Amino acid sequence: MKQPLNRLSALLSKRWLMSIILVVLSLSAIGLYRYFHPVIYRIPSNSDNAQEINFFALGDQGSGSLEQRAVADAMDKVARKNKRLDFVVLLGDNFYIDTKLTENSREWNTMFEEVYSGAYLSTVPFYAILGNHDVSLSLNPKTHPEIEYSKKALGFHNDFGNINGRPLLRIVYLDTNASSDEMSVQANYVREQFIRNPLQPIWKIVAGHHTIRSYGKHFEDKTNLENTLLPALQEAKVDVYMSGHDHNQQLIVKEGEPNYVVNGAGGKSLYAQKVLSEDLRFFNKGYGFVSLKANANKLKIDFFDNHAKTVSSNEIARECKDLNTRCIKAIK
């Protein structure tokens, strides 16, 4: 009788041990899932009436590479740390593919939706412009799948925030792949929004894919932007011109011109610095993105690498309204 009882006790002990192991494994699985899929107990911000706006910008990211995913992870990490992100601007070359793109192409998942799926990135709008690698992807010359996918037209603008009835920030998005004549039309659109519009924003930003100034691979590029677009930016006293195209990170500050923020470091192969210049405040041949934070008093520009580490910080005081190099200062 004693031997069967011992067998029964051993069997029950094994079952209890297995049950405990299963419970531990289940709890571990739940813990790992919650670690990699954190719940954000927040309501997405209303950027229309905010008194401070936080957004990220990057270009030349559409590679589907591990580097692109690392930058995306860094973006979400910084957003979680700041507990705030209003939107993201994609500065062109959103897809590097050898086939045509449609609204139903799988690349929307592999190079966009799945990449920018973090807890914060998945809840904010993305505003994209076309790069030189995007323009040839359409099957229909009268439209473009990226425009159809986003339902946004080119040559548009957005207002963000509200300070005593004035927009805190206005961003004008341009197609810099356009011909000289078309670029002149877009330059007039910049004048319309930043000079003739009676509702003037506190901060003025223009986004285009191609650089106007660069000290990387595209330093010697012969574009029409310096002749067609730059005069409009100067007349309108635009604070920042954001671009990609050169696969690196740059901050260029030149007397009488807008501050140039270049971030083509979103995931494609990188370009080195070509020349030295006293106008070049910062250059990084590394993957990353740029974060801009605007309020009524200042505009903060932070470059981050693909490990979510700050590699450069600068600040523009709003009390300084001229396109003067003294208006922007490095933050140590």
Walk me through the structure.
This protein has 332 residues and is α/β, with parallel strands linked by helices. The protein folds into 2 domains: 1-37; 48-330, Purple Acid Phosphatase, chain A, domain 2 (4-Layer Sandwich). The chain is 28% helix and 22% strand. The strands form 2 sheets. Strands 3-2-1-11-12-13-14 form a 7-stranded mixed sheet, covered by helices on one side. Strands 4-5-6-7-9-8-10 form a 7-stranded mixed sheet, with helices on one face.
Order of helices and strands: HEHEHEHEEHEHHEEEEEEEE
- Supply the CATH architecture of the largest domain: 4-Layer Sandwich
Structural class: alpha/beta
Strand content: 15-25%
Radius of gyration, whole Å: 24 Å
CATH topology of the largest domain: Purple Acid Phosphatase, chain A, domain 2
* The CATH top-level class label of the largest domain: Alpha Beta
Number-wise, the strands total 14
- How would you name the CATH homologous superfamily of the largest domain? Metallo-dependent phosphatases
- Gap from first CA to last CA: 81 Å
Rounded average pLDDT: 83
Biggest pleated sheet: 7 strands, mixed
Q: What spatial order of strands do you see in the largest sheet?
A: 3-2-1-11-12-13-14
Query: Poorly predicted ranges (pLDDT <50, ≥5 residues)?
Result: 34-43
**Helix content, binned percent:** 25-40%
Can you tell me the overall shape? globular
